[in-house]
Amino acid sequence: MGQLNLILVGPPGAGKGTQADRLRGDFDLPYYATGDILRAAVKEESELGREAKAYMDKGDLVPDALICKVIMERVDSTEAADGFLLDGFPRTQGQADVLNDALERRGRKLTAALQIDVPDEEVIRRLSGRRTCVKNGHNYHVEFDPPKNEGVCDQDGSRLIQRDDDKPETVRHRLDVFHEQTKPLVDYYEKKGLLRHFDGERPPGEVHAHIRATLATLQLEEKL
Ligand code: AMP
Questions:
Q1: Which residues are catalytic?
Q2: pLDDT band at 168 (very low <50, low <70, confident <90, very high)
């Protein structure tokens, strides 16, 4: 099997993390979610975290130079030699260029950009009801996926909170940022013939089956 170098594209709350979990299980790919990496850095109060925090709190993007370094270190690691799954990166044309050039220099290329489409109103509904456990980041939804005991994580018993950037006004801003900065990127991958669309309003199992079928086709095409 050739490399599976994949990126997931879609608004916050599209279900990228859910699909990533399934794809990791299918293909044993390392998964790099820039939002998770940055949140962990903020929690550790590392230099990266200190630099990123102010941007993140406002729902703004952190500077390209900062995030590109973080991601390229991972793409170059041995565990990513046969492929990787990026979530939340690239988010801008500048980041896409860095990734493209870096892969080219290494004789690698992107397999596909998997775009999960969800309308804005649905994103707001999903994210403003999301609750996250303080210990390990397990996610729940007050309406669609409530924990057994309100405010407590089923998996590790820790407290559930609403992430600052899941507050409705910040979600709207994150969506604006997504549309503004990511739209050109989507056009770019579309032009390169790498973009594949999935309907994020379908149940997660269906979205997953659709992605698997698409990847199987891409792998077959590569062999021909
Ligand atoms: P997420 O959980 O993916 O929505 O990311 C949370 C926050 O991390 C974003 O609102 C940004 O501040 C920052 N972030 C994540 N990925 C990137 C990226 N590729 N470029 C710039 N900022 C990012």
A1: 16, 91, 130, 163, 174
A2: confident
Torsion of CA 159, 161, 163, 164, to 10 degrees: -120
CATH code (residue 25): 3.40.50.300
Tell me if 26 is assigned to some domain.
yes
pTM: 0.85
Structural domain range at position 34: 4-120+169-223
Regarding the beta carbon of 67 and ligand 1, being less than 6 Å apart is answered yes
How far is the centre of ligand 1, averaged over its atoms, from the C-alpha of 87 (Å)? 10
Residue 138 domain flag:
no
Among residues 200, 202, 198, the alpha carbon closest in space to that of 214 is found at 198
Distance CA 108, CA 121 (A): 38
**DSSP-derived 3-state class of residue 195:** strand
The number of domains in the chain is 1
Does residue 132 lie in a domain region?
Answer: no
Q: Is residue 115 part of a domain?
A: yes
| Minimal-distance CA residue to ligand 1 atom 19 | 89
Ligand 1 atom at minimal distance to the Cα of residue 87:
3
Q: How far is the CA of 62 from the centre of ligand 1 (A)?
A: 7
How confident is residue 1, by pLDDT bands cut at 50, 70 and 90?
Answer: low
